[in-house]
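Write out the 3D structure for:
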Amino acid sequence: MKIRTITQDDADAVRKVYELAFPESERDLVSRLAGELLSAAASPPILSLVAEVDGHVVGHIAFSPVTLRDTREPIGYLLAPLAVCPDHQRRGIGSRLVAEGVKQVAAMGAGVLLVYGDPRYYGRFGFTVDQGKCYTPPYPLQHAYGWQAMSLGEGNSGRPDVAIDCVAAFGHPELW
């Protein structure tokens, strides 16, 4: 398996990964998010990685910048979305995508990494719900227990209720 930075040639394969990996009730929403992130411009830039097996894209992960709501100062990244084709799941591909992405955003100087997902999965990488409680997402959460954070550097330096904004692709309340 090879993990690499995405290219424009991967767009259709990435959409297909999400269509296969997510249930029908979520696949259109998450596929649209992934597609919007592929073409979105952001500063700092969005990091998008794919996992390739035998020359075929079988997994994808994106990390997009988050900013302080009041000053627009970049403070870190949001990990979302993440998917692996069902016939390649449970082989460590998702874990390797997360680990490589964490390494790269930390090297880029991000202070915090946020995620909205299953604490049992993301907790093994160092994400915690307690750290997540320090950051207020742009929309109310359907499942507050899934909002987590991991400090990569200075983070929020212990400030409570840090209100964040995300790139425009996350401007759909149904994602939250």
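Residues 24-39 form the longest helix (16 residues).
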